[in-house]
Design goal:
heterodimer, A: mainly alpha, 10 helices, disordered C terminus, B: alpha/beta, Rossmann fold, 3 domains, six-stranded mixed sheet, four-stranded antiparallel sheet, 11 helices, binds adenosine-5'-triphosphate, binds magnesium ion
Chain lengths: ~280, ~280
């Protein structure tokens, strides 16, 4: 366990994408996800790929950090791809036929396409979390949820709960790290033994962790009360979110992508053997 | 030689934007029987340094040797090492977890391969050693104890494994003055009878001046001085730029000097200072 895996994995840098408004980024990521589900033909895949590459280049995040997130889901991607190859029914161009298993060109393409989609989804959302601090993210969500106020949904409370939770994840990670070191110094062994033994070995970490989490929650509640938190209904913000030219540019660029995907889907439909709809 | 550290360097999170050089070419050795203080401002690498002594941080550059356990080989015997070096972390009371104090204190020896009976016996000895009432406390939950008692129980948890070297990371942090004094007294008495070598990190210069016979000064990952407290606290030149100050005793000595009263040597405990002042002013009564 180390600091590399702090939740949200924010990568500090001074880039175009970092400077965009979190609300815009959130909307764009949703739009991107929709676009990923719309892609059908080879050309729209190329369009999406270009879009992602430009996004990554515009974020100044080293490719290594981004690929790390893909590495985390590679197992899921491979598993679904294999299942897709075997269970895809249909397709004419048979490559392998053995017992009850038939592998066709179509099934391979289908599997590849699903795998690419998964990878795109992860890349898009990772880019968001890499370039936006958790605090900005919750601010953005709070602002986007504003219409829910009309139905008396306590968005502000939800937002503060979210930001406290996010803020505390790295703190608790550090705490886990400290407690583990302290127990290791007393000879605890977290690395060897079977599953049961390892699970049991975590008890000396989990109990102090819970104790300290409750203590911290208590202290925080006290501190919030002591500062009259929520005594006034209309809180102002320290950092006010503002839209800028970057947001307009980013939105325009994404609109272009979605338009391109839809247009490509419509006009090249069926022109290529491997552009069957899925 | 009980501890030998040569050219030790360490960098956290290499290759990430959070990369941080915590230690840079640190070398020293400590003989059996010494009480060594480690001082340095926040973030100077003290904790990183002592965690190496227990194999809690993987050695990446340089060498560390504790008795005949060489940490630069491929698979050092960590169990043996951790049984030899007892390590007390900052705020150690947060490592308590068992249902009863006795079980918690016996956790260490059990891990190091003692039988249940041996571990319980070692735990009883350790609990008595730190000055807790064994009969009253052994079946209590560690979470019911007071702050000072918790810290004692945590120290007992370290001592129960009978370490030869005791490493303490700010053992008195967060205690009231009486609690601080009691813990320091405990450490001194342990030093006389139980553990051989003591390494102590502290931000309190008074404690360091009074209780240690040697001081390592860390600054920005480097060991900038390794000397007796008398020499290190003789004037401000060594500590300048580290953000550390002199102990009160040394400051009083310097104030007296500006008034024309010169003391013999550099007394660092309140008692020694009082005697020195009495001597300087013309004999004790
Ligand atoms: N797990 C970690 N990951 C990254 N950097 C770390 C980690 N632990 C410590 N550091 C950094 O390494 C440097 C040295 O830290 P260390 O804890 O050794 O300092 P210290 O002298 O013990 O300070 P203090 O007096 O505050 O306890 C600091 O700048 C700290 O921010
Ligand atoms: Mg420290």
């Amino acid at each position: 366990m180390n600091r590399d895996i702090t939740f949200g994995q924010y990568y500090p840098a001074d880039s175009f994408v970092h400077k965009m408004d979190p609300r815009v980024k959130l909307i764009l990521v949703v739009a991107f996800i929709v676009a990923v589900f719309l892609v059908k033909s080879l050309f729209s895949y190329i369009a999406i790929t270009i879009f992602v590459i430009v996004g990554i280049l515009g974020s100044h995040v080293p490719i290594k950090s981004i690929l790390k997130s893909v590495r985390g889901i590679i197992f899921v991607v491979l598993l679904t791809a294999i299942l897709n190859v075997f269970f895809y029914s249909g397709g004419e161009r048979v490559l392998v036929h053995w017992w009850k298993i038939t592998i066709t060109v179509e099934s391979l393409l289908f599997a590849l396409r699903m795998a690419l989609r998964l990878i795109f989804l992860v890349l898009g959302t990772t880019l968001l979390t890499l370039t936006t601090t958790p605090m900005n993210l919750t601010d953005g969500m709070e602002s986007l949820m504003a219409p829910l106020k009309l139905i008396r949904f306590p968005i502000h409370d939800v937002a503060i709960i979210m930001s406290i939770a996010l803020r505390f994840i790295p703190i608790l990670m550090e705490e886990v790290n400290k407690i583990m070191l302290a127990q290791k110094a007393r000879g605890a062994d977290f690395e060897s033994g079977g599953l049961m033994k390892r699970a049991r070995a975590l008890l000396p970490v989990l109990i102090p962790l819970f104790v300290s989490a409750f203590r911290r929650a208590d202290e925080l509640a006290l501190a919030l009360d002591a500062r009259c938190y929520n005594a006034t209904p209309h809180r102002t913000k320290y950092k006010v979110l503002k839209l800028g030219w970057r947001d307009a540019a980013g939105a325009f660029y994404s609109a272009l992508l979605i338009f391109a995907v839809v247009a490509i889907n419509a006009s090249f439909w069926g022109l290529f053997g491997f552009s069957l709809s899925v | 030689m009980s501890i030998e550290v040569k050219d030790l360097s360490y960098t956290y999170s290499v290759g990430s934007p959070f990369q941080k050089e915590a230690l840079n070419g640190v070398s020293f050795s400590i003989s059996e029987g010494e009480t060594v203080g480690i001082i340095g401002s926040t973030g100077s690498g003290k904790s990183t340094l002592v965690q190496h002594l227990n194999g809690l941080i993987k050695l990446t550059s340089g060498s560390v040797k504790v008795y005949d356990i060489d940490l630069s080989i491929k698979k050092p015997d960590f169990k043996q090492l951790r049984a030899t070096v007892g390590m007390l972390f900052q705020y150690p009371e947060y490592q308590l977890f068992e249902e009863t104090v006795l079980k918690d204190v016996a956790f260490g020896p059990l891990n190091f391969g003692a039988t249940k009976e041996e571990a319980d016996a070692a735990a009883e000895e350790a609990i008595r050693l730190v000055g807790l009432d064994f009969e009253e406390i052994k079946d209590k939950s560690p979470f019911e104890l007071s702050g000072g008692q918790k810290r004692r129980a945590a120290i007992a948890g370290i001592l129960a494994s009978k370490p030869k070297i005791l490493v303490l990371d700010e053992p008195t942090a967060g205690l009231d003055p009486v609690g601080k004094r009691e813990i320091l007294r405990l450490i001194t008495s342990l030093k006389k009878s139980y553990v051989k070598t003591v390494l102590m990190i502290s931000h309190n210069m008074d404690e360091i001046g009074e209780y240690c016979d040697r001081v390592l000064v860390m600054s920005e990952g480097k060991l900038i001085s390794d000397n007796s407290p008398q020499n290190i606290f003789a004037d401000e030149s060594i500590l300048s730029g580290t953000g550390l100050s002199l102990p009160h005793t040394a400051r009083i000595r310097r104030m007296l000097e500006t008034q024309g009263v010169f003391l013999q040597g550099n007394p660092l405990s309140a008692e020694a200072l009082a005697y020195a002042i009495a001597d300087a002013l013309g004999g004790r009564s």
